[in-house]
Specification:
It is built from 4 helices and 9 strands. By secondary structure, the protein is an alpha+beta fold.
Length: 174
């Protein structure tokens, strides 16, 4: 079972993972003074993740123009993540080796591989977070499977509206 789910309007539970580029730990989700798009993807074994991240690559400039920094992360090893970057030419930041503890801290759904060919161990199902400059959660989309994740074009359009109209996080009534 996963931990408690991240809620809109709360401070994002920052976490660390390994930067594929530098090989050093990076902190993800701290207040940064700018909007952040954080995407958790399943890993090298997931064809839907590749399609999603290829779309992100095509839209990266539009996200940056809207004022966002981007970070993607998976539980994959650095070698697997490097292989994907080499194959697909992704230029956005990629982090890897997301631990089970960090997955639980974020309230992600966690899966076991269906075969040794799928993954080396437990992995996180997809999630997308949009964070405000102060590190609070504006949008949270946590999925239990690869087929359900927000359309990046619609999300960007909605976030531009949210920023321009200074909209608060929604869905905060409990």
């Amino acid at each position: 079972m996963s931990g408690s789910k991240v809620s809109a309007g709360v401070t994002f539970p920052s976490f660390s993972a390994l930067s594929v580029d530098s090989g050093e730990k990076v902190e993800i989700g701290n207040a940064s003074g700018k909007w952040q798009l954080v995407i958790v993807y399943r890993g090298k074994h997931c064809a839907r993740c590749k399609k999603y991240l290829n779309t992100l690559e095509q839209m990266q400039t539009a996200w940056h123009d809207a004022g966002f920094s981007i970070m993607t992360v998976s539980a994959d090893s650095r070698e697997k993540a490097q292989a994907d970057i080499a194959e697909f030419g992704w230029t956005f930041p990629v982090a890897c080796e997301l631990s089970e503890d960090e997955m639980r801290k974020l309230g992600l759904y966690i899966s076991e591989p269906l075969s040794p060919n799928e993954a080396d161990g437990l992995f996180a199902e997809p999630a997308v977070f949009c964070l405000r400059p102060d590190g609070t959660v504006q949008i949270v989309a946590i999925s239990n499977g690869p087929s359900a994740r927000p359309d990046l074009g619609e999300l960007l359009d909605g976030m531009i509206f949210t920023i321009n109209k200074e909209r608060p996080p929604r869905g905060t009534v409990v």
